[in-house]
């Protein structure tokens, strides 16, 4: 298999290291927790997590850190400062790594050379594209042995397994409901406060949790997230399979600006349109 993303490097070793972005290879493994890394320097940095030494402490809240860098980044929480700005939008971040991760969400031919032929979304690696394809195929290869529920990713299955755990160490002081994680308790507390911190940028609706906002945003049709249009009634869909709902449409004939034709589920004829 060959990759061509356009990056160039001054020496073979740098190219070899870069190729791990495409292959997903992580040859350096932590002996204490099993987490794997692409570079030795990243593994060494990770090893600080397992160290009990915390020589750098915050004067404001007492939290300890392994390095001056960790303490410096922590202090930005108290100051509210976000020194790292994205040059493609108005978002700002406390740490450089968060900025770099965010910048990867802005698709470019250079950092996301792998395109989904169903919806046009682009990805930085073959693995990410394969994972995304399950949205269209409906494949859920990871199954819970206790209840049979299936998932697209192993991390989602692991998160689900907490449901079957009897341990509920985080409880609500107001109503006594227990949760498996701090995150679950935090989201639950929004029910009592009435707070809905996640706002839709296309309408006036607000949501308690980010996942609910993302689901809602998918209801706003755009050329990017709903490229498949029913030639009978004009409704748009996120995938070829979903547009099988064109059954029952009896409205007029489709327009002439047809870019491509395909088949959805139940032998439904699908047209993809040019702008």
UniProtKB/TrEMBL annotation:
Coiled-coil segments on the chain, per record: none
Recorded GO CC terms: nucleus
Assigned keywords, A-Z: DNA-binding, Metal-binding, Nucleus, Repeat, Transcription, Transcription regulation, Zinc, Zinc-finger
PROSITE patterns: ZINC_FINGER_C2H2_1 (PS00028), ZINC_FINGER_C2H2_2 (PS50157)
GO MF annotation terms: DNA binding; DNA-binding transcription factor activity, RNA polymerase II-specific; zinc ion binding
Matches recorded under Pfam families: zf-C2H2, zf-C2H2_4
Transcription regulation recorded as keyword: yes
First-listed, main subcellular location of the protein, grouped into a coarse class: nucleus
Domain C2H2-type: 1-27, 28-55, 56-83, 84-111, 114-141, 142-169, 170-197, 198-225
Localisation: Nucleus
Protein name: C2H2-type domain-containing protein
Lineage per the UniProt record: Eukaryota, Metazoa, Chordata, Craniata, Vertebrata
